[in-house]
Design goal:
Keywords: DNA-binding. The protein is 55% helix and 4% strand. By secondary structure, the chain is mainly α. The longest helix has 28 residues.
Length: 185
């Protein structure tokens, strides 16, 4: 049984609906003073419909658009709560499936995409461009554009790996000079 849109929700219901953990919602309350659920006896939180809209917008900006906490705080300061709420509304209107709603095989990476490792934040090439885009750019890219960026990044990383292996193969191992032990220490 689902609740009416204007009904208040508990933290568990909000966490389930937004597909985030309860501690994440508490953290967002600390970072975003605009999120103010009603608190009842014993510290129980009740989220109003307008809180839900704002949380949907914050979640979309953080998870889907790739903004940082500071980036979303800046958006809230400069563009206001209504803009962030609109971001959340546009997601629900498009009815984009959440990861938990997808079948298990749809969540897996395609066979030709290796598991991600650590991504360097500085440098040139598609990896650096993607890292820069996450910070402040609000560019929307299609899945094919994203796949092309990932493939280019993988190619760049493979080239870097080959260069490193080539350099290691040519050089002699460097060893630190031995230190004499202190006597009577």
């Amino acid at each position: 049984m689902s609740k009416a849109a204007e009904a208040f929700r508990t933290i568990s219901e909000v966490a389930d609906e937004l597909d985030v953990q309860k501690h994440v919602l508490r953290f967002w309350e600390a970072r975003f003073p605009q999120v103010r659920p009603m608190k009842r006896g014993g510290g129980r939180r009740y989220y109003r419909p307008e809180d839900m809209e704002l949380l949907r917008g914050i979640r979309h900006l953080l998870h889907a658009e790739g903004y940082t906490i500071k980036g979303v705080q800046k958006i809230l300061r400069e563009q206001g709560i209504d803009f962030v709420k609109q971001q959340g509304r546009s997601v629900t209107e498009r009815n984009v499936p959440v990861a938990r709603d997808l079948p298990a095989n749809a969540r897996a990476l395609p066979a030709n995409v290796p598991a991600a490792g650590p991504v360097p934040a500085a440098g040139r090439g598609p990896v650096a461009v993607a890292a820069t885009r996450r910070g402040g750019g609000r560019q929307r890219t299609s899945a094919t554009d994203q796949l092309a960026t990932i493939e280019a990044a993988i190619k760049e990383l493979e080239e870097c790996r080959a260069m490193l292996l080539e350099t290691i193969g040519k050089s002699e191992p460097v060893r630190a000079p031995r230190r004499a032990r202190a006597v009577g220490a």
